[in-house]
Design brief:
Elements: E1 2-6, H1 13-21, E2 38-47, H2 50-53, E3 63-65, E4 68-77, H3 92-97, E5 104-110, H4 129-150, H5 152-156, H6 163-174, H7 181-190, H8 203-217, E6 220-225, H9 232-242, E7 248-250, H10 253-264, E8 268-269, E9 278-279, H11 285-302, H12 307-318, E10 321-326, E11 344-347, H13 352-359, H14 361-365, E12 367-372, E13 377-379, E14 390-395
Amino acid sequence: MQIGIVGKPSSGKSTFFCSSTLIDVAMASYPFTTIEPNKGMGFVRVEDAGKFFGVISNPRSGFVHNDTRYVPIELIDVAGLVPGAYEGKGLGNKFLNDLTGADALIHVVDASGSTNAEGKMVAEGSHDPCEDVLFLENELDMWFLKIIENNWNKFYKNPTTEFRKKVDILVQNLSGVKILEHHIEKALHEMKLEESRFDQWTDEHKKMFATKCRELSKPIIIAANKCDMPTAEKNIIKMKETFPKTTIIPCSAASELALRKAAKQNMLSYYPGEKDFEITGELNEKQIAGLETIRKNVLTKFGGTGVQLCLDTSVLDVLDYIPIFPGGVKSLVDKQNRTLVDCFLLKKGSTALDFAYALHTTMGDHFIRAINVKTKQIIGKEYLLHYGDVIEIIFNKA
């Protein structure tokens, strides 16, 4: 799974990325600080299954804190997009192509209004961040439309009315940007294009189809960044009123980065997503004052920095994934004496057989049955998985 971090230059994308991964990358308040995409590991918070059994888990990757498991996901931070990116402006085609593998996008918006459309610094509050939301959606829609139009001759030569065949043709030519079969099926259904031939599609049909595919294959939430700046609160209210169907989360990536770096240096106790911190090391007055400002203007006011909440919301709510744990009825411990070592994130609606394939192709191909370790009940391959299930797969090893 990959989450893309996007936005115009100088909106705080790279700071958001660094605060999520603790990977040092170039951060500066001028356009195109980032050229090549940055990739790193962020985390999603889920309830750890060890709590149910009264044991402490030892994750192979990620970590556990107070019964909360931090499950790793891949983040990609691409260079800032400017108006006309889909036409190649500002190396836009390259930056957009870097997003082809993303399952969802976090759009980092400068909620303070202190950077203009090109990412240049302007007077605080002089730019309307609502324009940035519309701009990015339009750039992505036009990027998708351009891909569809570049493949249109292949579609046009197949004037079929058969729904299944039409879906197959679209999948073959659009899977490169991770527009999957179920995205295409839903887009055609919602647009009532199931029976229409490709040669009957108008330019408006193409544009609407591109937008729908973008919405389904690259869903977006807004990280309303710099929320602690004086002009941000009013702008965030306006953004929520203007885009009522969009998830908008107040965010201070700079505060999250400061807290995580301090925690890494054992100056304080803080875990991503928490609403407060505890000073544990020797700090000078300036450092204490800075942390107290973060506590007052960000943590207390907004209930957290918003960075971790953006990641959790993208994966668990927008993409609708749930945590599933492999385990055994007789033992939850592996050969290295580690307890509940793995946690998989699967799409809600996945089955026991889907989980078997997620573990290993052989386990899926030779599936016999599964056991719900929490209830000790035998389940079949069509069993629908639930949040936090611990599943043992029985398969033919011969």
